[in-house]
Structure formats: structure tokens, C-alpha cells
Write a structure and sequence with these properties.
The complex is a heterodimer.
Chain A lengths: L3 E2 L4 E5 L4 E7 L6 E7 L6 E7 L4 E4 L2 E6 L4 E6 L8 E8 L9 E2 L3 E6 L1
Parallel strand pairs in A: 2-11
Antiparallel strand pairs in A: 1-3, 3-8, 4-5, 4-9, 6-7, 7-8, 9-10, 9-11
Chain B lengths: L3 E4 L2 E4 L5 E7 L6 E7 L5 E8 L5 E2 L8 E7 L2 E6 L8 E8 L10 E3 L3 E5 L1
Parallel strand pairs in B: 2-11
Antiparallel strand pairs in B: 1-3, 3-8, 4-5, 4-9, 5-6, 7-8, 9-10, 9-11
Classes of the chains: A mainly beta, B mainly beta.
């Protein structure tokens, strides 16, 4: 039973346009959500996060939107750049004292075409 | 920022041998570290939670006798794959959370992973 779902395994976007990566979750106890970026043969790198008390968090070109009622979040990258090409993982967990591991989606491979 | 170092980055071993992977938090102390495994085109799957000074907590389906975890200090956790078989070939990644005090919503920081190939 997958608690965090990324239904699009891949996405191609033209350079300069907006990339939208989607993520759905099923566990209503999740209230902290993160996006990680991963290049081949490297560990994931933290990108941006959002807690359930917010519906939007923005950091430069990256914005994460959270719709708690729909159990859905999305990552917007604008403008997309070729260096953004990577696998993006959505992750979630309940807020706690720090000992609960993250649950990851399967990832979406983003290709930004110059 | 918080850094997690993982070593080695790549290892090839023969079937039946054991391999040790080290995970260090370089500029913070981590009472808890997490070990993940990733198969090609798959998600990061949690294997175990490593607790400093106590036994690791393994996820269902992960053999504790095969994947030995030792969290001997606040900055070092090791994963030993014992009697490795070709099906153990995978990408192993450790992670830790830099503490922020109290309720902690700081993100996990990951090592660069170890590509294990068992021949």
C-alpha cells in the first residue's frame, strides 16, 4: 500500500516554461511534506518543504502547494532550466520529535529541454 | 549546512563476502539515522532506523541478521551487508536529521549513497 504516490514517472518541459510535479498521499497523519531532487548515483538533495498549517511555500523558482482536503501537493518550477533535469521525490511524515522516517513516492523524472 | 558523508560510494564484491558501509554526520550529532535502499526506477525504501546506543529498528521484510546496523556514536552509523548475494546489489543511502530542538521539522539530509554490486 503506497502512502505517497507520484503517478507520473516522467515529465518533459521546455526550458523557460513551468514544470508542475504532482504528489498524492493517503495517510491523514502526514502533516509535513518535502520535495527532494536526485541526480543519478547521488543521494537526494532537499529542495523545499511545507507543513500542513500552510497551503503554499515559495523559495526562488520553486513553489510547493498543499491541498490537505484533497491530500495533494505539487511542486512548481518556473522558469524551468536544463539543470533542473533530475528525479524529483515527494516525501511525507507526521510532525514529531524527529525520529519518524520519511515515506517517499516513486519519483518523477523531469527533463528540461533546451 | 548539515552534511552527511557516506563511504564507500561504490563497491564490488564477490558473493558470500561482507561489505560495510559507513555513514557520518559531519557537522551535527544525530541520535537517529535512517538507512534506505533504492532499486532502479523505484522509490527509496526504508530499511531500518538506526538509534545511537541501542538496537536498530528494522522494517518489515528486512533481515536484521543480513543487514547489520551499528550506531556506535552520535556521528557514525554503519550498515554491514553480510554474506552478500547478487540480489543484494542495490543503491544504499543513509540519512540523518540535523536537530533543531523541540518539535523538529528540519529535513533529512542524505549521504551520496553507495552502489553495491555483488558478483
Amino acid at each position: 500500500d503506497q502512502q505517497v504516490k507520484q503517478n507520473s514517472p516522467s515529465l518533459s518541459v521546455q526550458e523557460g516554461r513551468i514544470s508542475i510535479l504532482n504528489c498524492d498521499y493517503t495517510n491523514s497523519m502526514f502533516d509535513y511534506f518535502l520535495w527532494y531532487k536526485k541526480y543519478p548515483a547521488e543521494g537526494p538533495t532537499f529542495l523545499i518543504s511545507i507543513s500542513s498549517i500552510k497551503d503554499k511555500n515559495e523559495d526562488g523558482r520553486f513553489t510547493v502547494f498543499l491541498n490537505k482536503s484533497a491530500k495533494h501537493l505539487s511542486l512548481h518550477i518556473v522558469p524551468s532550466q536544463p539543470g533542473d533535469s533530475a528525479v524529483y521525490f515527494c516525501a511525507a511524515r507526521p510532525s514529531d520529535s524527529g525520529n519518524t522516517p520519511l515515506v517517499f513516492g516513486k519519483g518523477t523524472r523531469l527533463s528540461v529541454i533546451a | 549546512g548539515a552534511v552527511v558523508s557516506q563511504h564507500p560510494s561504490r563497491v564490488i564484491c564477490k558473493s558470500g563476502t561482507s561489505v560495510k558501509i559507513e555513514c557520518r554526520s559531519l557537522d551535527f550529532q544525530a541520535t537517529t539515522m535512517f538507512w534506505y535502499r533504492q532499486f532502479p526506477k523505484q522509490s527509496l525504501m526504508l530499511m531500518a532506523t538506526s538509534n545511537e546506543g541501542s538496537k536498530a529498528t528494522y522494517e518489515q521484510g528486512v533481515e536484521k541478521d543480513k543487514f547489520l546496523i551499528n550506531h556506535a556514536s552520535l556521528t557514525l552509523s554503519t550498515l554491514t551487508v553480510t554474506s552478500a548475494h547478487p540480489e543484494d546489489s542495490s543503491f544504499y543511502i543513509c540519512s540523518a536529521r540535523a536537530p533543531a530542538g523541540g518539535l523538529d521539522n528540519s529535513p533529512l539530509h542524505f549521504g551520496n549513497g553507495t552502489r553495491l554490486t555483488v558478483t
